[in-house]
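At your convenience, could you comment on the folded chain following this short note?
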Amino acid sequence: MARKVIAPCGFHCIKINNLSVTVGKQAILEDVNLHIHCGTFTAVIGHNGAGKSTLIKAILGEVPSEGDIEFKLKKDGASLDLKIGYVPQHLAIDKDTPMSVQDMIISYGFKYPVFLPVSKKLREKVLEILAPLNAEDLIDKTIGTLSGGELQRVLLSLALMDAPNLLLLDEPVSGVDAGGVEKFYKLIDELKMHHDLAIILVSHDLEYVRKYADKVVLLDKTVLLADTPGVVFRSKEFENMFGTKEESDV
């Protein structure tokens, strides 16, 4: 049985205030400010070395940073606890690993030893976790045999199992074929519409960003521009970075 789907309420907002990361004497990020609402898909784009992955790591608290992140109710400004789901850029998996999707979820999600028998009730919980991503049919597949798209569905299932307020995706379709990339972005679009969360995705896939994102952040150590895809892709800042720009609305 699938978990209950919760539509975006529109009452929550996430504010990233003056986020900066310095390594030694080198500034990786400088005064990054973003304002993100639940039920929206924000894509972060920029050239290599612009600080995109560092931004994700800073939000996760994996690298030391200055600044702060607020998660509040829009109506009265009350602070809330921010829960974050995360899908990494790369996941090193041995193709010969005997671990199944079920093993992976119960070990990571439930801290249950994979060598113990799995009860019917626990298996049903795993199926519930996979259901929102239409991944129930993958439950008994071994991790090493999954296609890129199948693995992403499993990882998204894990990222969403604790009902996060913010979902972070760091170039999650790296190595996935074109057909799989399109399916992935459609899936993200569905998650945005049917779950009460905000999505931040780091991407080089400009065509799909233009098609699916609600907001685009052009990053080069700091935020050069944050607006709709049409505005960003037609901007001088975009042209300076990528050597081209859109000539009409998208």
In short: The radius of gyration is 19 Å. Confidence is low (pLDDT under 50) at residues 1-9. DSSP finds eight helices and nine strands in the chain.
